[in-house]
């Protein structure tokens, strides 16, 4: 097994040769996704091979843990690094839809020492989350999401998948304990930009996270949830191609699929675009579930679960990231500001405080 590089300086032609099973002579690299992947550092690597090598990738993407120690410690505490490596190793084939080709994934268990080498999808398009998805991109993304959810619908509450955190398990309990403590830190930077009623909503939400997750967990069958299903964690085909590839599986969990759907539409569409299109998009998601074999889950249940789920994932990510992670780059701060504004607006649109269980 190839070693795990601690930093990108340890990624050498010899190491890449071991990973790819080909004679790599040299390479050029660039860091990509600055401020996008808060838990990981990502590099595009253009490869130069010995003349006799054939059928080898011209480039790959190498993912390592974040260079910020605070972010690394959060990744360990939440089990995110280990979950992503294990997902690719054990669940990727069964998921079967919208995944990149993985050449190598390994981790030293219980640490932030991990590496993932995957195909370079530079021919696909990454969408700036601040700009938001178009209606066409959103439609492609919800259809792929439904296929992923359908593959695991009602199949994840089994002993062999207990390693995947549940939406009511220890990871959620940990976040539930932390949110009230970090909310003042989050508020000092981000609260002023929230829409009217947003600060009141988040103050109550930050004391209700486990209760909200428990309520959602009882509403629908469980599936495999990505839990960070936003536009900057996917790549899109061109105008003639609705291909979508989903990346960054560090936050996987088990619970109702509405979590991912609300997280995507609430945070990755401009607010007015979401308001104009969300019922049609939820309809497309539900139709794809049914077409993929899911039974006994009607549209009104899907719509209701989607509305309730706006009270959970997007709000938690905004507060948790804004209150704990090293956001020393402006891109990271802009991302949390934008996510906060959009997710709070979506939660308010779907009932806000009135939906929080007493």
Strand order of the largest sheet: 1-2-3-5-4
* Content of β-strand: 5-15%
Q: Any idea how many domains?
A: 2
What is the H/E string?
A: HEEEHHEEHHHHEEEEHHHHH
Summarize model confidence as the mean pLDDT.
Answer: 92
Instruction: Give the structural class.
Output: alpha+beta
The largest sheet is: 5 strands, antiparallel
Q: How much is the radius of gyration in Å?
A: 20 Å
- Work out the helix count: 12
> Mind telling me which CATH architecture of the largest domain this is?
Alpha-Beta Complex
Q: What is the 3D shape?
A: globular
Ends apart, CA distance between termini:
53 Å
Look at the structure and give the CATH class of the largest domain.
Alpha Beta
Give helix % range. Answer: 40-55%
Low-confidence stretches: none
User: How many E strands?
Assistant: 9
CATH fold descriptor of the largest domain: Aminoglycoside 3'-phosphotransferase, Chain: A, domain 2
By CATH, the superfamily of the largest domain comes out as Aminoglycoside phosphotransferase (APH), C-terminal lobe
